[in-house]
Amino acid sequence: MKKLILKYGLISSAIVVGVPVISSLFIGFGPESFGKGEIIGYTSMIVAMATVYFAMRHYRDELNNGTLSFGQGLSIGSLISVMAGVAFAIYNVVFVTWIMPDFNEQYFAYSSGLEVGSPRFEMEYANMMAENGFMFSLVGGTLLMFATVFLIGFVLSVISALIVQRKSVTS
């Protein structure tokens, strides 16, 4: 089961990180790309986490004599989700540290319709940071990105395990 989880975990990690990286080469990293980036990012998370279904089917059909319990499926899906979540968290650290260090300010300006550096922006950004600063810190943002990918994967793991589970047939 370890090889299966590693294989599908790497596939899901490649999708969840690779699609946003490649799409950014075409749409850019500025505020004008944030809307498209959100759609691409969440879609890539869902597609990446859909791999848990295929991993469970492969395990049931090829490695476990046609059987899969709900618990086995949930374990497989959860571990793949953890791998993809960790990969996306690492990507987040790289992104906000080196690729776009001013992402928080740019995204806040984009979402609030304000111009970076304007007096109103400075006041509202300072208030937001005072209230929610942890979520915009490196650690908070990274935990949020991990949790987002993991939770999408966990929900798809529950659904997939319910669909794919098959009890052994005793004669």
Description:
By secondary structure, the protein is mainly α. The chain has one domain (2-164). The protein has 7 helices and no strands. The protein has helices at 2-27, 34-49, 51-63, 70-99, 103-112, 119-132, 138-164. Helix 1 runs antiparallel to helix 3. The protein is elongated. It starts with a helix and ends in a 7-residue tail after the last helix. The mean pLDDT is 95.
Features:
single chain; 80% helix; 171 residues; mainly alpha
Order of helices and strands: HHHHHHH
Largest sheet: none
Q: How many H/I helical runs?
A: 7
Strand content: under 5%
Domain count: the total is 1
Bulk shape: elongated
The total strand number stands at 0
Structural class of the secondary elements?
A: mainly alpha
The helicity comes to: over 70%
Mean pLDDT: 95
Low-confidence stretches: none
Instruction: Give the N-to-C terminal Cα separation.
Output: 27 Å
Q: Using the CA coordinates, give the radius of gyration.
A: 19 Å
Q: How would the blueprint of this fold be written?
A:
Elements: H1 2-27, H2 34-49, H3 51-63, H4 70-99, H5 103-112, H6 119-132, H7 138-164
Helix pairs in contact: 1-2, 1-3, 1-4, 2-7, 3-4, 3-7, 4-7
Summarize the structure.
With 171 residues, the chain is mainly alpha-helical.
